[in-house]
């Protein structure tokens, strides 16, 4: 949980040294906040390091597949002169150390310092004060293709305090001989000294195939944990609870994710082994919580970093993969993800892994929410380092990503060429083919954080777009001017040294730590300034193979003063300062810190979750297995997992509300009866269990036969059954007044459509309730508009209304939800509909005839993937307003007014199956979203027409699809995926977007209540949709939102740490349930139990 500390220490500036940064000319009152970099040449800086790779007949990527992974860079002040120095790792070239002489002039001291003479394949480089003498040492992680232990032994260069170093790894117990990638030093047991986690890998797979080494080598493959025992390091890997599985780890971060005062770890693993997320148990051990804390992860994880992205005081996480942003590169360099392999991976407990970057936002209540698609950073090509750091000094952490690989060794056409090679080719021929592999320098990425989970790509604007083959990346204030400069290790070109030209104000904190942790690693600082909060942790290993300058840095924008600063040390002691001027470096001393004697008072939340089983509810939805992707390969998501739904009423006339919840195909629904103490029991009457072969979707209690009790209507849906199947007939169960039900087979017409929603109104004004039934889909024909219908109640029996009653219901679309609402205030109920690929539709009731007058109400061009609609008078002005749940912004289907997202549906290849083509805008035309392989699976002619991936990737949609079929196809386009509210202003509907936190997932249901008892209506939403094809990151980022209203149609997000509302499930429906002694909110979840929250109102 998020912890708020009482401020109990008075101003301590008396013992804090405050100094202006050297040579700082920063204006305390900048007119504008600027960001951007100047790339300095090697002749200017003296840094000519180039991690060049020389390939040969017997040394190329056929003999060592990881030869292009690059190396790292570390920044830190090795001689305590106040100027950060730079250490580069080299692969074939030696490591290099550059001494900062000031004004961006550096001297190569590699040889005379003793750090540049030990050859070896360096990957990770890390600076840390290993021997606690107040000087930074250098630790080097070695990898490579050698089977000789001596070649791989890691190096520890102990600082002699005279610009020389002594290699001392063996004497300190840190001469790890594994195939190492990176190390992180941190205090895992809060005993005041630094321990170390070492990421290792198995032997490179191609080297393994060539030499088939002894199993004795396996002991070097696993990650290691070294505990600091009185200055020497001991391997305690088997005792601390870290995984002993083999994994290709590439980066590691040490952060306190759960704010409990103990440093946790995140290890990013390449290939299929999932990442490790180790929470510190506080007793010298860790537990891997990756499956319970993250809903999905990157598949080919490379770089990673941690930091507070949204300034809520919680530590977030970024991981990078290798998916290109560019359409052509994605279609030529990325293979289709195998559904079979993906499912096997999930079944084996190896998590849901997707080939996309992830930006995991910490909810503060034990889970994370990936918003990478929403903020636009999910695809940044073959990405290595990722760093979360404020680069324009505006108080928000930006994102930079290094990428590029020397050879595109997974180019699909190149792989096709390799698959047809003669295995008996000579080494000379193999070498030539290796040299012929495609090679494309790629520019790095920069994203400006604009706040409120909004990022802007600014690579070009910030001068950060020079193409290359970049790998390790680090930051530090190289010229002490109050902003962070960037250094990048490149392959086949000199290192990039970027001078930062930011204009915003800053605060730098130099930490003087405890006796055995002089640089205060693991400490964090929290600042409050001008109503804003920032938190930064002092951890050095970040990104990829690299480490950053020690200390803490805050951008302040135009703010000139920090109201309060709190520095929290690893053992919990604190320093507190007030009213600190901007643009200084503040030295904070552990020796002056005070113990925390104040207890943390848990904050009471508005809602409290209870266990459903505690009140007698044992129901768990059990989704049946059905794979509609077999027939419709290019479906954007499944449509067979749309339940369950619930309906609430008093069915036995005892004054207590009961509820029915539907089941999946093969599972009967359940009716729960409320008892006098507020708990529930299963009703003895469950006739719907006889209809369990049908899939229950919408459910509605209503008095059908006028006997003053509640009967039950249940829709039958799903995509398992084709149109016309008898299992698709809806069902009506008649109540005898005692809460006992019996099915009336003759009460409904024989309509065999896959329906979902059902709502009631007295349409014909005869005193009984009629029905609208929304048809959700036509099985096997995704995208084709289905026909919905109205049922007229005639003495307890329903008849289908004539077409003339609502002519627009014919082929109206894929209805997901509907409401009866008097939108025009004429005294009768109009019908408002939403659905997939549908416009928001108003059928205005004109004396019992429903006419589409949507444009009259301002609903032109509102097509979306709409999931839900709720009607309520949000502003208490006497008319209904509407909350409408869309797909949300956290998806890869980008849409805008100028460049809408499109779908085309037809049998394009005349083979009798429905073909779905999703299309996006790219370089002045439209191209298919999906790649050649999966498109060819759906339409085999594509493979014949396009013999290689290059030709497919270079073609537009018109080049790929038959022109006549395209002309006759079902076509829709969407320009906005936002969930919205529609404010009814005198019959004109005014659109307003819901807060960004409500856009992280589809909204499947919303509820309006006054959560905080302030007299204003608030909104609660739930959603997600887990069932997607495996190349689309599943929609699982939602955990429910509480949006507090001000009475004027403004709604503000409330963090779950305050609201208590947290539903990280595949939610479908939400209802308000009045109990005898408590009011509750009930949420139904697909393939899971229900969630229940007690409300205070």
Describe this structure in words.
The protein is mainly β. Helices cover 9% and strands 36% of the residues. It has 17 helices and 75 strands. The longest helix is centred in the N-terminal third of the chain and has 9 residues, at 339-347. Mean pLDDT is 95; it is low at 1-23.
What are the main properties of this structure?
mainly beta; 1097 residues; 5-stranded antiparallel β-sheet; 75 strands; disordered N terminus; 17 helices
What's the overall geometry?
A: globular
Give me the count of strands.
75
What are the low-pLDDT stretches, counting only 5+ consecutive residues below 50?
1-23
Computed CA radius of gyration, to the nearest angstrom: 31 Å
Give the N-to-C terminal Cα separation: 24 Å
Q: What is the averaged pLDDT score?
A: 95
Number of helices: 17
**What oligomeric state is this?**
single chain
Main beta-sheet strand count, sense and barrel state: 5 strands, antiparallel
Helix content: under 10%
From the helix content, strand content and strand pairing, which structural class follows?
mainly beta
Estimate what percentage of residues fall within beta strands: 35-45%
Summarize the structure.
The chain has 1097 residues and is mainly beta.
Helix-strand layout with pairing:
Layout: E1 17-19, E2 37-40, H1 42-45, E3 73-76, E4 85-88, E5 96-102, E6 105-108, H2 110-113, E7 121-128, E8 137-143, H3 149-152, E9 155-159, E10 165-167, H4 169-172, E11 179-186, E12 195-201, H5 205-211, E13 224-229, E14 232-235, E15 248-255, E16 264-270, E17 276-280, E18 286-288, H6 290-293, E19 297-298, E20 304-307, E21 316-319, H7 327-333, H8 339-347, E22 353-354, E23 358-362, E24 368-370, H9 372-375, E25 383-389, E26 398-403, H10 412-419, H11 427-435, E27 442-443, E28 445-449, E29 455-457, E30 467-468, E31 470-476, E32 485-490, E33 496-500, E34 505-512, E35 524-529, E36 532-537, E37 541-542, E38 546-547, E39 552-557, E40 561-568, E41 574-581, E42 584-589, E43 607-610, E44 646-649, E45 658-661, E46 670-674, E47 680-682, E48 695-702, E49 711-717, E50 731-735, E51 741-743, E52 754-761, E53 770-777, E54 789-794, E55 797-800, E56 814-821, E57 830-838, E58 841-846, E59 849-852, E60 864-865, E61 868-872, E62 881-885, E63 901-906, E64 915-922, E65 925-928, H12 932-938, H13 941-945, H14 949-953, H15 957-960, ...
Parallel strand pairs: 19-22, 34-42
Antiparallel strand pairs: 1-42, 2-33, 3-4, 4-5, 5-6, 7-8, 8-9, 9-10, 11-12, 12-13, 13-14, 15-16, 16-17, 17-18, 20-21, 21-23, 23-24, 25-26, 26-28, 27-30, 28-29, 31-32, 32-33, 34-39, 35-36, 35-40, 37-38, 40-41, 43-75, 44-45, 45-46, 46-47, 48-49, 49-50, 50-51, 52-53, 53-54, 54-55, 56-57, 57-58, ...
């Amino acid at each position: 949980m998020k912890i708020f500390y009482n401020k109990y220490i008075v101003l301590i500036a008396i013992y804090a040294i405050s100094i202006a940064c050297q040579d700082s000319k920063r204006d305390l009152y900048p007119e504008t906040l600027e960001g951007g970099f100047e790339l300095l040449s090697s002749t200017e800086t003296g840094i000519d390091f180039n991690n060049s790779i020389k390939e040969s007949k017997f040394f190329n990527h056929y003999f060592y597949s990881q030869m292009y992974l690059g190396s790292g860079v570390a920044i830190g002040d090795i001689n305590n002169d106040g100027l950060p120095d730079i250490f580069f790792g080299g692969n074939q070239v030696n490591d290099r150390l550059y001494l900062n002489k000031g004004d961006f002039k550096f001297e190569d001291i590699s040889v005379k310092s003793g750090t540049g003479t030990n050859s070896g394949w360096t990957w990770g480089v890390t600076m840390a004060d290993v021997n606690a003498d107040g000087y930074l040492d250098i630790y080097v992680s070695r990898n490579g293709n050698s089977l000789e232990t001596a070649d791989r032994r890691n190096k520890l260069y102990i600082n002699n305090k005279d610009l020389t170093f002594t290699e001392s790894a063996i004497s300190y117990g840190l001469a790890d001989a594994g195939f190492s990638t990176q190390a992180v030093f941190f205090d895992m047991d809060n005993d005041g000294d630094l321990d170390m986690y070492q990421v290792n890998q198995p032997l490179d797979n191609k080297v393994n195939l060539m030499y088939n080494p002894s199993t004795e080598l396996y002991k070097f493959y696993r990650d290691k944990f070294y505990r600091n025992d009185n200055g020497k390091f001991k391997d305690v890997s088997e005792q601390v609870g870290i995984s002993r599985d083999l994994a290709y780890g590439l980066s590691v971060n040490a952060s306190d994710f759960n704010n409990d005062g103990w440093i946790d770890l995140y290890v990013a693993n390449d290939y299929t082994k999932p990442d490790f997320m180790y929470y510190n148990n506080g007793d010298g051990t860790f537990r891997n919580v990756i499956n319970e804390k993250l809903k999905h992860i990157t598949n080919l994880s490379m770089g990673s970093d941690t930091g507070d992205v949204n300034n809520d005081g919680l530590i977030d996480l970024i991981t990078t993969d290798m998916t290109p942003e560019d359409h052509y590169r994605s279609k030529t360099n990325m293979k289709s993800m195998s559904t079979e392999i993906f499912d096997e991976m999930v079944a084996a407990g190896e998590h849901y892994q997707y080939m996309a970057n992830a930006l995991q936002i910490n909810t503060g209540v034990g889970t994370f929410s990936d918003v990478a698609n929403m903020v636009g950073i999910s695809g940044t090509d073959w990405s290595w380092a990722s760093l979360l750091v404020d680069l324009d000094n505006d108080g928000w952490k930006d994102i930079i990503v290094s990428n590029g690989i020397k050879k595109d060794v997974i180019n699909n056409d190149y792989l096709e060429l390799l698959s047809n090679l003669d295995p008996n080719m000579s080494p000379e021929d193999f070498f030539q083919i290796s040299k012929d592999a495609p090679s494309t320098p790629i520019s790095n990425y920069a994203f400006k954080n604009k706040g409120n989970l909004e990022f802007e790509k600014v690579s070009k604007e910030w001068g950060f777009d020079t193409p290359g083959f970049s790998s390790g990346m680090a930051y530090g204030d190289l010229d002490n001017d109050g902003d962070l400069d960037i250094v990048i290790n490149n392959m086949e070109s000199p290192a990039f040294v970027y001078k930062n030209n930011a204009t915003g104000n800053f605060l730098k904190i130099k930490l003087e730590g405890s006796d055995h942790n002089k640089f205060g690693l693991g400490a964090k600082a929290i600042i409050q300034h001008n109503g804003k909060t920032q938190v930064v942790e002092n951890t050095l290993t970040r990104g990829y193979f690299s480490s950053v300058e020690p200390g803490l840095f805050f951008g302040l924008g135009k703010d000139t003063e920090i109201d309060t600063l709190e520095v929290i040390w690893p053992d919990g002691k604190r320093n507190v300062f007030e009213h600190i001027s901007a643009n200084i470096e503040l030295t904070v001393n552990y020796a002056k810190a005070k113990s925390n004697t104040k207890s943390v008072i848990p904050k009471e939340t508005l809602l409290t979750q209870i266990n459903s089983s505690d009140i007698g509810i044992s129901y768990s939805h059990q989704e049946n297995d059905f794979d509609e992707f077999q027939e419709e390969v290019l479906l954007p998501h499944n449509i067979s997992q749309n339940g369950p739904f619930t309906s609430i009423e008093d069915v036995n006339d005892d004054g207590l509300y009961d509820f029915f919840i539907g089941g999946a195909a093969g599972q009967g629904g359940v009716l729960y009866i409320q008892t006098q103490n507020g708990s529930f029991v299963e009703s003895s009457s469950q006739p719907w269990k006889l209809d369990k072969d049908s899939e229950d979707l919408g459910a509605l209690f209503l008095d059908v036969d006028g006997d003053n009790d509640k009967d039950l209507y249940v829709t039958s849906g799903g995509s398992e059954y084709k149109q016309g199947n008898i299992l698709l007939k809806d069902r009506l169960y008649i109540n005898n007044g005692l809460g006992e039900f019996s099915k009336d087979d003759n009460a409904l017409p024989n309509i065999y459509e896959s329906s979902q929603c059902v709502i009631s109104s007295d349409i014909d004004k005869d005193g009984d309730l009629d029905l609208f039934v929304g048809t959700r889909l036509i099985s096997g024909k995704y995208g084709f508009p289905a026909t919905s219908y109205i049922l007229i109640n005639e003495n307890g029996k329903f008849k289908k209304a004539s077409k003339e009653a609502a002519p627009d219901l014919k082929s109206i679309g894929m209805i997901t939800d509907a409401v009866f609402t008097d939108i025009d205030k004429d005294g009768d109920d109009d019908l408002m509909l939403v659905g997939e690929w549908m416009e928001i539709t108003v059928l205005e009731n004109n004396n019992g005839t429903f006419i589409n007058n949507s444009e009259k109400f301002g609903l032109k061009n509102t097509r979306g993937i709409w999931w839900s609609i709720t009607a309520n008078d949000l502003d208490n002005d006497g008319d209904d307003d509407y909350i409408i749940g869309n797909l949300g912004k956290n998806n890869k289907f980008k849409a805008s007014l100028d460049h809408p997202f499109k779908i085309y549906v037809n049998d394009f290849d005349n083979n009798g199956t429905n073909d779905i083509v999703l299309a996006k805008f790219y370089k002045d035309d439209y191209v298919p979203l999906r790649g050649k392989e999966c498109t060819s699976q759906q339409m085999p002619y594509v493979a014949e027409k396009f013999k290689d991936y290059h030709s497919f990737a270079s073609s537009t949609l018109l080049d790929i699809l038959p022109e006549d079929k395209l002309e006759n196809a079902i076509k829709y386009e969407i320009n906005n995926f936002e969930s919205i509210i529609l404010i009814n202003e005198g019959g004109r509907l005014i659109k307003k977007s819901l807060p960004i936190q409500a856009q992280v997932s589809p909204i499947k249901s919303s509820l309006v209540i006054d959560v905080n008892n302030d007299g204003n209506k608030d909104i609660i939403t739930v959603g997600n949709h887990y069932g997607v094809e495996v190349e689309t990151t599943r929609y699982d980022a939602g955990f429910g939102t509480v949006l507090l209203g001000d009475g004027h149609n403004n709604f503000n997000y409330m963090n779950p740490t305050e609201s208590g509302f947290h539903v990280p499930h595949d939610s479908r429906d939400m209802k308000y349930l009045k109990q005898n002694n408590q009011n509750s909110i009930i949420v139904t979840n697909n393939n899971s139990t229900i969630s229940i929250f007690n409300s205070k109102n």
